[in-house]
Amino acid sequence: MNGTKKQNYSLDQLSDCIKILSADAVEKAKSGHPGLPLGFSQVMTCLAFEFLKFNPHDSKWFNRDRLVLSAGHGSMMLYSFLYLTGYKDFPLNDIKNFRQLYSKAAGHPENHLFEAIETTTGPLGQGLANSVGMAIAAKKYQAELGDNICNYKTYAIVGDGCLMEGISYEALSIAGHLKLNNLIILFDDNGISIDGKVSLAVSENHLMKLEAFGFNVASVDGHDTTQICQALSDAQLSDKPSFIAFKTKIGKGTKDKEGSEKSHGSPLGPDEIQHLKSNISFAGEEFFIPEDIKQLWEQAWLRNQAEYSSWQKEFAALSSAQKAYINKAKITLQKDIPTPTKPEATRVSSGRIIESLMQNENKTIVGSADLASSNGLTNQACKVINSNDFSGNFIHYGVRENAMAAIMNGLALSNFLPIGGTFFVFSDYMRPSIRLAALMGLPVIFVMTHDSIGVGEDGPTHQPIEHLASFRAMPNIDVFRPADFIEVKECYEIALKNTTNPSMIVLSRQNVSQIRIDSDKNQSEKGGYIISEAHKPKSIDFTIFSTGSEVSLAMEVQKVLEAQDLSVRICSIPCFSTLLRQGKNYLHELQGNAKDLVAIEAASSFGWSSIIGLEGIFFGLDTFGASAPAEKLYEHYGLNSSIISQKLLSHKKT
């Protein structure tokens, strides 16, 4: 507390270490955001010395508190904490190389660079929503393993920018609804954003807003360690999620930039740093922290040592199954899911597979953005998670697509397998969170139904056209568009084995024919394969590539053309990225010796040149759809066997 001595130094003085390291690192890099670390350093110091449960010698201790810096531009505050408290393999040299290639101290926190960084943050509000997922995960673990094994809290540090983003409204609403009393939001209430005073754009009362969401709220002086510690102490016993607004001055301690947007996103300059250090008794050369003060920081975790030792004993007494429960989900698909004997929408096929997963796997958490029945995600195995019972396996996210995806990321970071769905066109709302799942390499499964103009009468607002191309362009995500039940099952098998990136499974609203019969070999694992061979494979006129509901259309075209004595090979491409990873030789095998390469997909042509080349023939649409029954739309856009066959016959004659 204010004036409380940690040996010969107060919390206020200890917080100066964060200021020195942050100011020097940003200045050396000639790039960065010093304002938040300087303004919030006292809050961070109180948290580290009095409340945060951590062990720098075991950074992945299961029962550690999760610390999420949602306002990721203030990354130097987090890096200062990691260095000062003695985390293994986070040396001062990383801080001296802040924002430089190969430094763990990246411009914004990246969890793949250092294991103690809980999540990759930067796009504002994403970390806050991740923290809601982490808090839900903690409740799940607590329900399964008990309070002695899981009683950690999740702290999310947010700024004004985080609270302006729509994703925060979505995520905070869910947190309040679920009464996540293990979630504590720490708001750096400095009233400044990049353009100047926050009042230029914001006039709402955050405390009233968060209270309406179902939070316990408080506002205190963020430069008074007595008030800081009291607010954090009160939050420990809250029956609801907590929101604490710490009134601070951005760039605290500088001469002319304190309280100004000028300290937000630019180096302070040597004069300001000299002024800052002139009021710090132990300040010296760049990055200098006296050894006795560094030792105090390294001892901050020792108040957790007894609990850490006790937890190890409690954990050792668990059964092997309970111990395994906290690890990454290792989920396999049951083999006895019946293959349909008649046409079935792939969203329905997916739903039957997910029901099997939910019946047999307790690390799966499924949910939907208010479209559970349409997405095929609700079933007899669903048990809804609610504020009174977290033992379930299904979350009603409401119409909150972006927060849903970010919460799923938080669940995946906590070693659960999240599966969540909406209509494919609404993936636009989810893109920032999906992108971060790909950037972090999280094994999340996004289920996207109603995948094309096959949506029909809902019209162009609900018919995805460019979405396949745009997500195929995103690095480190596998986008699957299966053609029938067997391909759906194969795509799930692939996705469940994948631990290094997310998967998106794109599914039809309309019924599709069952093309394949089940086999022991997963034909989809190479991303593409010959689903129907030409009757003269050594002399192919057309090799037609297709995906999803259009594979059966391609096979209808094959019948028409082969009746005209043309030789036609059909290749199904359930996953572009997987196919292209096989290399050119495999693609050439699929293309065969065809005189012409063709693609059929009820979507944009963008990206298909990587499969059929620039001279290839594409049947799809590069315009928005229209309001009409699906079969009428397919005919209108030239996507039926008669129209395609006639065009290919005419092309052959030329």
From TrEMBL:
Do you know which InterPro entries this protein is assigned to? THDP-binding, Transketo_C/PFOR_II, Transketolase-like_C_2, Transketolase-like_Pyr-bd, Transketolase_bac-like, Transketolase_BS, Transketolase_fam, Transketolase_N
Q: Which cofactor does it need?
A: thiamine diphosphate; Mg(2+)
Q: Which UniProt keywords apply?
A: Calcium, Magnesium, Metal-binding, Thiamine pyrophosphate, Transferase
Ranges annotated as biased composition (Basic and acidic residues): 253-264
| Record domain Transketolase-like pyrimidine-binding: where | 344-514
The yes or no answer to whether the keyword Endoplasmic reticulum is present is no
* Pfam families given in the database record: Transket_pyr (PF02779), Transketolase_C_1 (PF22613), Transketolase_N (PF00456)
The record, for SUPFAM superfamilies, names:
Thiamin diphosphate-binding fold (THDP-binding) (SSF52518), TK C-terminal domain-like (SSF52922)
Q: Report the EC code(s) recorded for this entry.
A: 2.2.1.1
The answer to whether UniProt assigns keyword Cell division to this entry is: no
Instruction: Give, as one word, the top-level EC class.
Output: transferase
- Output the CDD domains linked to this UniProt entry: TPP_PYR_DXS_TK_like (cd07033), TPP_TK (cd02012)
The cross-references to PROSITE patterns, in alphabetical order and at most eight, read: TRANSKETOLASE_2 (PS00802)
Origin: domain of life: Bacteria
**According to the UniProt record, where is the region Disordered?**
253-272
Catalytic reactions of this protein: D-sedoheptulose 7-phosphate + D-glyceraldehyde 3-phosphate = aldehydo-D-ribose 5-phosphate + D-xylulose 5-phosphate
Extract the NCBIfam families matched here: tktlase_bact
Q: How does it assemble?
A: Homodimer.
What is the similarity comment for this entry? Belongs to the transketolase family.
Q: Which PANTHER family match?
A: TRANSKETOLASE, TRANSKETOLASE 1-RELATED
Spell out the protein name for this chain: Transketolase
